[in-house]
Amino acid sequence: MSKRILFTLLAGAAFLCAPAQQQDGGISPEMLQQIRQSYRNTPQDKALRNALAGTPINTLARNQENLPAYDTHFSHRVESKGITDQKSSGRCWLFTGLNVMRAEAMARFGMPEFTFSPNFCFFYDQLEKANLFLQGVIDTRERPMDDRMVEWLFRNPLSDGGQFTGISDIIGKYGVVPQEVMPETYSSDNTAQMAYLIKLKLREQGLALRGQAAKGASEAALREEKARMLATVYRMLALSLGEPPAQFTWTRRDKDGKPVSTKTYTPLSFYEEYVGDDLAGNYVMLMNDPTREYYACYEIDYDRHRYDGHNWTYINLPMDDIKQIAIASIKDSTMMYFSCDVGKCLDLKRGWLDTDNYDYASLMGVTFGMDKRQRVQTFASGSSHAMTLMAVDLDGDGKPKKWMVENSWGADAGYQGHLIMTDRWFEEYMFRLVARKDYVPDRILRILEEEPIRLPAWDPMFADEL
């Protein structure tokens, strides 16, 4: 018998034996029989099975005891006018940031209605993220394709999601314009197809850059090629979203619709007049992540919207500290960027977020006992959506009973375009709050002076908010 034949026979025998070696951890016939016998198939089970066969789980699990009308009064509320709609896009972070600034601009200038253009900011956000990816490819050109960072880059060449750092970085560099100066388009309202095509092109361009680097191209040559590639992305964005104006003329009107002033602006001069705030310097992101040490500063590597921008940096705090900061801000008529796990226990028809909205335990006959820390650890919960925190209802002792946010799902979604949440829900599913430093105690601000704990870009806790 030749060595090749003997090797083949031995390899085949090893392959056939492999499943037997793994049977101890599999479902054996005996175990399956035991599992089957545990299911009693009672008349109650049959009734539930029949109901679940044609009815959404949330409909059956709806807690009838929690359905009576809830109180919509709030002891402290920041007034706003006009609900925005991000439609089929992941731009909640952008709408939220602009809504915070919009409320301040309307109050400052006495405007009855006003909206900043999300489309203008989104254009430059996408262009900057394309550059972030391509420059990242250049920076990692000597690493193999299966390197963790290289893999992360090609998995995430572009996203329409984001967080507050993108607000400060994009608006601080490019400015803002009124909604009517650069209105929404189909592709800004419905980003999926445009995003797919641009990501497809970026991945192709990324491979081309790595190929040129492998042939000995210098970094200077690669950056020149990157500029040509970005021109292609710019064209795709301009065709889909429109080209951002370099300057424009706009008339501000009073509450009666009468003209107050007409000026010609650049986006940056408009920002200076109608916002005039140092978003990077005057605000701080606060996080409640019970899986990590509190009263510590963290920085997420490469999690930014501009290559030359700021990494996402935050202070991790217990909920009690965050609540006090939020209450102080609302009492002083200042809205905040807020993000949470919005899909959990949401009754969208009523606009009500309450941990008692649905009784899954009674429906399924099982308990769900993980706390917030355990849900985060096991990827069962995390921040998914940004909104504008604008109201709190305090009891006689100054403790919060419920909260309200201005959402960006249109005026017909939820409670008049808002979502109301119980304080218990707030504790369980709120993750991030961006507050002006004026409302943050000095003892907490001093944490920013410490060297941040660096976390990798692919940490699952830090996905973009959509």
Overall morphology:
globular
CATH topology of the largest domain: Cathepsin B, Chain A
Low-confidence parts = 3-10
Largest sheet: 12 strands, mixed
Q: Helical amount among residues, as a percent range?
A: 40-55%
Please explain how this structure is put together.
The chain has about 475 residues and is an alpha+beta fold. The chain folds into two domains: about 115-275, Cathepsin B, Chain A, CATH 3.90.70; about 280-460, Cysteine proteinases (Cathepsin B, Chain A), CATH 3.90.70. It is about 45% helix and about 15% strand. The longest helix is centred in the middle third of the chain and has 23 residues, at about 190-215. About 35% of the residues are buried.
Task: Offer a concise description of the structure.
The protein is α+β, with helices and mostly antiparallel strands and 466 residues long. Helices cover 43% and strands 15% of the residues. The chain folds into 2 domains: 160 residues, Cathepsin B, Chain A (Alpha-Beta Complex); 185 residues, Cysteine proteinases (Cathepsin B, Chain A).
